Amino acid sequence: MELVFRVAKGKIRIVVCSLRLGLFTSLEVHKRYVKRSVMSPKFGLDYAKRVAKCKKCQQQLLKGNLRMWRMVPNPFTADSGNPTEMKHYFHTDCLFETLTRCRAATKVIDSPDDIEGWDDASDDDKETIIDKIRSLAELRVKKFGDKVKTSTSSPSKDIQEPTVSQDVSPRKRKNKKAKSATSAQKKVRRESAEKEPEDKTSGETSGGRTKFSEVKREVETLESSKSKDEMQEVRSKFDVFKLFCKLCDVIASVSKYTEKTTAVKIFINKEGYDGDLYLLLKFLIPEADQRVYNLKAKQIIKIFSSLFHWSVEEVKESYNQTGDVSQTICSFFPKLDSGSKKSKLTNQMVDDWLEKLSGLTREEEQQAHFSEICKLLVTSFVSEEEPCSSLIFYRNGVSSLELKYIIRLIMKDLRVNAGAKHILEGLRKGAYEIFQNSRDLHIVIEKCREISEEKSLPLESDIILNTPVKPMLAEPCRSVKQAMERCKKEMYAEIKYDGERLQIHKDGDSFLFFSRSLKPASDHKVVDLNKVIAEAFPTNKNLIVDAEMLLIDTNTGKPLPFGTLGIHKKKEFKDAAVCLFVFDCLYYDNESLTGKTLRERRNFLEENMKEVPNRVLLSNCHLVKKGENDKLDMLIWKAIDEDLEGLVLKDLDAIYEPGKRHWLKVKKDYLAESNIADTADLIVLGAYYGTGNKGGTMSVFLMGVYDEEKQKFYTVTKCGNGHDDATLDRINKDLEPKMNKISRIYENLPQWIECSRSLVPDFLVVNPKESPVWEITGAEFSRSDNHTASGISIRFPRVTKIRDDKNWETATSLQELQRLYELSKTKTDIKQSIDDGVPLYAKDKLNNPNDDGKASVTKKRKREAVNEKSKNNKQIDSANIKEDGSSSDEETETKKTKIPSKYGV
């Protein structure tokens, strides 16, 4: 298999990378492609038929607007004899700004004849472009002098004949003198190209993003330029951080996941590769790094603004437009070098710097630590009028490209659109499956080295104590019929506890707690769990259990609503305690149990776990056999009536598969009946800037209702789900003239809206009576301290319909919303002949699947003993629950909790 890269240097060439040998070889392109490349225009313009993004500024090119394109080589071409090209689209200003940085030998726009589609442009656009061409020509002559060959005539609207191009026509190639002259020109171009510094924006070349040949050239340059003393500091030429950054640019520049994988494979299989493979993969897969940096985008903006005396508001405004804090920070260094000086920064240096950063929590400490990186920046961006005397810069020549990826490592998002699977497949097929189980890159690398290429890697790998295992997940189930189709013989219908997933690792007397995202759990939530877990598992054996942590009422045993684990919310519930509901065991006595069936793992828990009343309990579940549709239907509705989140359905004969969605989850809003989920027709009151790919656009919307009595609008929820990209683009275009930018400033709110300070949007509608109405569907109506519509909100909201047939008068009013909330709490018509009247969450009558007469006498005695102890210890003192700390990342922004109903607490 071969991967083809093309490089334009005087004549059209390609670079072929052998994946097996990692060798770089130059080959001439097929003659017909040379002819086509010379004759075909390299630039063009049109009016956008669909939304695209400018390759330079990454902002959207809206439909109907003028856009210019530049033809660039496709870095991955299947047919080396007939390579293809691709278009990069730009705003007019962005394209010409990019061309100003091109080398003397690079083909640029010399006249309108170089632009395909010129005749289709409007007169105003033609005039603008001609001015740009003139300015570009003057700048290049001033910059390069005789090294650049310019057009013999200045650009004009009346030009009829093509100007003299830099490229040599096929006719001239037949002339020996012309051929000789061309060779001399190419020599000059090569010399000027070697002297010309690289593009100074963000690691991009003039023809598009950095290609893999750039990475190879960078390695060769480092190898030849560094002295022996310097090379001793860098263990390998492949460990230079700038090389890692360029590899990221290559991965980001291609869209197909197979091509991203191939780019990684080429890099690590390069002949002579001796870099730190673990550190490379650790950087490429930020999710594998367990370090927490305690920094968000706005905090990084604040730190850099303080260091360089920038206006925080200006930086935030730029961030709102891009959605990328790394790109925003680098854009404020307009002259910051991107590669003309040799950087001494290595992967190990960056890793050490990040390690120290992870231990800092105070803003002053973090700012001082960032100043160390700033000391490495190049001096060219500092003005003489405002010298930054408090910092000692410029030791190692860190470029904007490196700064960008340092910030992205902190944010744990390289923005290359490649996950762990795509990266690890570049290492070895099957490496990702090992990583799924072990979550340890050292083990992945070790197994890849131990097992020869001829043999396939084992699909499963033993899990490791104290290393988080990716949890097994559930996919939505929409009906009883769907569940029965998946059921082979028997299944467990288990309560879906509405808390926080917790994976507990017991290693002797020490405990580690990991959240669903595999990060360490918040200390204030788990600080007092060590003792009760040791009591529940009195054995000194090591183990890993999967559980759900939530607050329960110690009087009734009923689980309390989601979000009550927060420090402040706990105080609202006096008779409550943090309880662990254990539902699976993955590891015991240095042996993995993931290969055993759920039936075996559940039996193991029943035999080895001792329930601690109100603190550590087995999850409640019922046995459902294939064909028992009525029983499952009753359990689902019963869970809804008891204000539980739903049920999780698990095949008894299934093994535990980390990261796989092979369970089923049944929730109120998943069921096929449309009248089950909580729905309201809400008015668009405001909007927020999106992040990432949605940067610069309104992508999250503030929804609300109208109060007929007070004649004011009140907020209900923020909603960012339900619209596809095309719909979102249309909504932005429609809403833009109807919105007023208030930049989240509370004082800018008008009198007609009641909105809390924490929810003030970036944009507010000018006239809410002309605003659109959307149907919002959620899991349930909930309570929010931040929203002003009588404290009613919607949990997990999404847009299900744009109600063009409704306006502010016919939309859901505040009074109707209150009635909808009360209606949502009304009990359903369960088949009472099947319902035994015992709550699903009850522990007095153990609702376990073995309570069907088949359990052993020993097990029954154990249960009776546990029941007796539970009755005698109904009241438990929860005063020892520590109240210090801060809200976790798992809590929602509005800290929603369900309003207690007559059936609840």
UniProtKB/TrEMBL annotation:
One of its GO terms (cellular component) is DNA ligase III-XRCC1 complex. Residues 43-137 form the PARP-type domain. Residues 571-707 form the ATP-dependent DNA ligase family profile domain. It is found in: Nucleus. It catalyses: ATP + (deoxyribonucleotide)n-3'-hydroxyl + 5'-phospho-(deoxyribonucleotide)m = (deoxyribonucleotide)n+m + AMP + diphosphate. GO terms for biological process: cell division; DNA biosynthetic process; DNA recombination; double-strand break repair; lagging strand elongation. Residues 150-168 have a biased composition (Polar residues). It comes from the Eukaryota. Keywords: ATP-binding, Cell cycle, Cell division, DNA damage, DNA recombination, DNA repair, DNA replication, Ligase, Magnesium, Metal-binding, Nucleotide-binding, Nucleus, Zinc, Zinc-finger. Residues 190-202, 842-854 have a biased composition (Basic and acidic residues). InterPro entries: ATP-dep_DNA_ligase (IPR050191), DNA_ligase_ATP-dep (IPR000977), DNA_ligase_ATP-dep_C (IPR012309), DNA_ligase_ATP-dep_cent (IPR012310), DNA_ligase_ATP-dep_CS (IPR016059), DNA_ligase_ATP-dep_N (IPR012308), DNA_ligase_N_sf (IPR036599), NA-bd_OB-fold (IPR012340). It is an enzyme of class 6 (ligase). Its EC number is 6.5.1.1. Residues 146-217, 840-905 are annotated as: Disordered. SMART domains: zf-PARP. Gene3D superfamilies: 3.30.1490.70, DNA ligase, ATP-dependent, N-terminal domain, DNA ligase/mRNA capping enzyme, Nucleic acid-binding proteins, Zinc finger, PARP-type. Its main location: nucleus. One of its GO terms (molecular function) is DNA binding. Its cofactor is Mg(2+). Belongs to the ATP-dependent DNA ligase family. This is DNA ligase 3. It comes from Setaria digitata.
